[in-house]
From TrEMBL:
Its main location: membrane. It comes from Quercus suber (Cork oak). It is found in: Membrane. The keyword Membrane applies. ATP binds at residue 47. It is a single-pass type I membrane protein. The keyword Nucleotide-binding applies. It catalyses: L-threonyl-[protein] + ATP = O-phospho-L-threonyl-[protein] + ADP + H(+); L-seryl-[protein] + ATP = O-phospho-L-seryl-[protein] + ADP + H(+). InterPro entries: Kinase-like_dom_sf, Prot_kinase_dom, Protein_kinase_ATP_BS, Ser/Thr_kinase_AS, WAK-like. This is Wall-associated receptor kinase 5. Keywords: ATP-binding, Kinase, Membrane, Nucleotide-binding, Receptor, Serine/threonine-protein kinase, Signal, Transferase, Transmembrane, Transmembrane helix.
Length: 351
């Protein structure tokens, strides 16, 4: 994927000199602005905090990771700007906000039917399966959560925010790293051992599925202590056959109870404490798709929706741009390091 180098002037103009009204979101990482380029393309521009070296390293990491990826359920990186005081990243603009907003906003959550939720789960699982197994070097996202899954107007899922992602050299099955991620979604095994594997993403995805089923936040101090952590209380409820007590009321109907139970059991498997006991993302994606095909269709509308989803999913599997490295793992690792050095040099020169 070619990455364009934007000028500071272009991006200043696109955001009306970073006007307050163009701010899409703010967080520990910095600020994201909505911009309109001279060719009228709408973009999201991510500006990291000034003077934060770790942010700059994450920025470089994100450029390296996203240039390896081409998948319809991963946010596209158009380019970057290196001549400003802090580097800027330019992404495609996703119109409908985050999955987190849709699940936890009362008005929006009622519009998020079970069919839509299942479609979002399948698309996110496919994106993660692709990251783990279809790129030249496996990529562990490391911060999968509903706030990092964006939705477009058709409720198509787009996985975003690769600042914490890691490329795993092919000769390693795990990396020992400084623990990074979001509480409530963090793999407990990774938290204990600092050993990062792709199964850490599987755990986080299990929490996302629990959130889609229950409408509850991953971690909430407003809940009684026993229910504070969604993963723990969700697994207990499934073991005790209490799913229908905790599932979001409006997504249940006579025709989908069996399917909800099977998806909940799959989420429970993703949330197993030992990484080795969890399924791979490829298995999760395949299982969700199988459940989607098996659903009872109570109305014609659902038929149309299912066909559309099926069509989209078959299109997904064809649109993978798989970059298969021919060399051994060491050359891929060296390639990653040299890309890293080149980008760091560019950033330094840009200042």
């Amino acid at each position: 994927m070619t990455t364009k180098i934007f000028t500071a002037k272009e991006l200043k103009k696109a955001t009306n000199n970073y006007d307050e009204s163009t701010v899409l979101g703010q967080g520990g990482y910095g600020t994201v602005y909505k911009g309109v380029l001279s060719d009228n393309k709408v973009v999201a521009i991510k500006k990291s905090k000034i003077g934060d070296q770790s942010q700059i390293e994450q920025f470089i990491n994100e450029v390296i990771v996203l240039t390896q990826i081409n998948h319809r359920n991963v946010v596209k990186l158009f380019g970057c700007c290196l001549e400003t005081e802090v580097p800027l990243l330019v992404y495609e603009f996703i119109t409908n906000g985050t999955l987190c907003d849709h699940i936890h906003d009362k008005g929006r959550s009622s519009l998020l039917s079970w069919e839509k939720r299942l479609k979002i789960a399948i698309e996110t699982a496919e994106a993660l399966a692709y990251l783990h197994s279809a790129t030249s070097m496996p990529i562990i996202h490391r911060d999968i959560k509903t706030a990092n899954i964006l939705l477009d107007d058709n409720y198509t899922a787009k996985v975003a925010d690769f600042g914490a992602s890691r490329l795993v050299p092919l000769d390693q099955t795990q990396l020992t790293t400084l623990v990074q991620g979001t509480l409530g979604y963090l793999d407990p095994e990774y938290l204990q051992t600092s050993n990062l594997t792709e199964k850490s993403d599987v755990y986080s995805f299990g929490v996302v599925m629990a959130e889609l089923l229950t409408g509850k936040k991953a971690l909430s101090f407003d809940r009684p202590e026993i229910d504070r952590n969604l993963a723990t209380s969700f697994v207990s409820a499934i073991k005790e056959d209490r799913l229908l007590q905790i599932v979001e009321v409006h997504i249940v109907n006579d025709g989908n109870i069996e399917q909800l139970k099977e998806v909940a059991n799959l989420a429970k498997r993703c949330l197993r404490l030992r990484g080795d006991d969890r399924p791979s993302m490829k298995e999760v994606a395949a299982e969700l798709e199988r459940l989607k095909k098996r659903e009872k269709k109570p109305s014609e509308d659902t038929d149309v929706y299912a066909n559309k989803t099926e069509y989209l999913l078959s299109a997904t599997s064809k649109s993978f741009d798989i970059d298969v490295g021919t060399g051994g793992s060491t050359s891929t690792t060296a390639e990653y390091n040299s890309m890293n050095d080149q980008l760091l040099q560019l950033v330094d020169n840009g200042r």
